[in-house]
Amino acid sequence: MTDSLPYRVRMTGISKRYHPIQVLDDVSLTLKPGEVLGLVGDNGAGKSTLSKVLSGAIIPDAGSIEIDGEVVSFASPADARAARVEMVYQDLSLCDTVDVAGNLFLGREPRRRIAGLSFLDKARMHAEARAMLDRLGIVIADTRLKVENLSGGQRQSIAIGRAASFDPRVLIMDEPTAALAVAEVEAVLDLIRAVSARGVSVILITHRLQDLFLVCDRIQVMYEGRNVAERHVSETSIEEVVNLIVGRKFAARSAGAAGSTGVPA
Ligand SMILES: Nc1ncnc2c1ncn2[C@@H]1O[C@H](COP(=O)(O)OP(=O)(O)O)[C@@H](O)[C@H]1O
Ligand SMILES: [Mg+2]
């Protein structure tokens, strides 16, 4: 479906070393407009590090990133945001003691001037927050609720809603469903479908392999800081993905990579 489109994201030869560990070793990643890519791998495989390179939070030792054909170099998440790349981090980075609307508008609250003084425009902020949530189908009764009083799924939705409100071309989500109840997982998967249907390219990091087959177009598997395999969801199965995640031997062989003896390099 997205095969004929040019790349939205092309990461090539990305390497990162935290002495003495080579956390990323010559990793590539591509993403098409509106595509949902599942990024999987065991703990420590390098998924979060690779995503943070794309979101500007980590500067790689080597490698290049192109977005819509343009070479970019991110020194900070602000640089990535300016290029319309957003990431929802595992810890969500929300302010618990601030209300829903305040979190959605953190750092860019609408203001109005009265008699030359600038005031927070609360009415507008809540109205715009409500519209933002409605647009994404996020169900939260009151935008005045403090985030600390929300469920895990609602908190996740707020973090995704905030990221989506920056009108990203690329949205990265790092294990968004890890701590959620079943119905909440469904809501997050619906959100992913909604943003990708609008043309946003999504990277979904998850351990819930069944979810990959519900929302992803393609799956990329990492193992110990390297790419080991890439599959369209239509041409793979949970069993194969599990094998690729845990089995270097099998994975290396099927990817045609070196090291097919299974001996760690
Ligand atoms: N700031 C850091 N300093 C040293 N080692 C790190 C740092 N961040 C990550 N690592 C190591 O890099 C490896 C990959 O981590 P990560 O990208 O978080 O993996 P994943 O998200 O796939 O679980 C792990 O071995 C981790 O301990
Ligand atoms: Mg991680």
Automatic annotation (TrEMBL):
It holds the Pfam family ABC_tran. The keyword Nucleotide-binding applies. PROSITE patterns: ABC_TRANSPORTER_2. GO terms for molecular function: ATP binding; ATP hydrolysis activity. The keyword ATP-binding applies. Residues 9-249 form the ABC transporter domain. This is ABC transporter ATP-binding protein. InterPro entries: AAA+_ATPase (IPR003593), ABC_carbohydrate_import_ATPase (IPR050107), ABC_transporter-like_ATP-bd (IPR003439), P-loop_NTPase (IPR027417). Keywords: ATP-binding, Nucleotide-binding. It comes from the Bacteria. It comes from Pleomorphomonas diazotrophica.
